[in-house]
Amino acid sequence: MDRVTRLASQRAVVIFGTSSCCMSHTVTRLFVDLGVNPTVYELDEDPRGRDMEKALGKLLGRNPSVPAVFMGGKLVGSTDKIMSLHLSGGLVPMLRNAGAIWV
């Protein structure tokens, strides 16, 4: 859990995912299209990825635990939460507040 928290607080937008997860790719692509340069951690490529995935599952209260998106060091949620925020117009203001975009 400490590693997840530390990594999540190092950049404005951090995505924990897996290289084979289409939802991780979709969320990452959305942020890139919005002009964000997210830091992406592919848990299946990290030696401690399984432990981080378990910690994320506890934080999110669900499995699968990826993608898990953090903004400004705070857990925002998974794909459903990010897409809901985007469709309601709430995502861009959150990105501005986190310092991920300036426009």
Automatic annotation (TrEMBL):
Keyword Cytoplasm carried by entry: yes
Segments traversing the membrane: none
Major localization class: cytoplasm
CDD domains: GRX_GRXh_1_2_like
InterPro entries tied to this protein: GlrX-like_pln_2, Glutaredoxin, Thioredoxin-like_sf
UniProt-annotated location(s): Cytoplasm
A Gene Ontology term for the protein's cellular component: cytoplasm
Glutaredoxin domain sequence ranges: 13-76
PROSITE patterns xrefs: GLUTAREDOXIN_2
Keyword set, alphabetical order: Cytoplasm, Electron transport, Redox-active center, Transport
SUPFAM superfamilies assigned to the protein according to its UniProt record, in alphabetical order: Thioredoxin-like
Its biological purpose: Has a glutathione-disulfide oxidoreductase activity in the presence of NADPH and glutathione reductase. Reduces low molecular weight disulfides and proteins.
Membership in a protein family: Belongs to the glutaredoxin family. CC-type subfamily.
Record-given protein name: Glutaredoxin family protein
Gene source species: Rhynchospora pubera
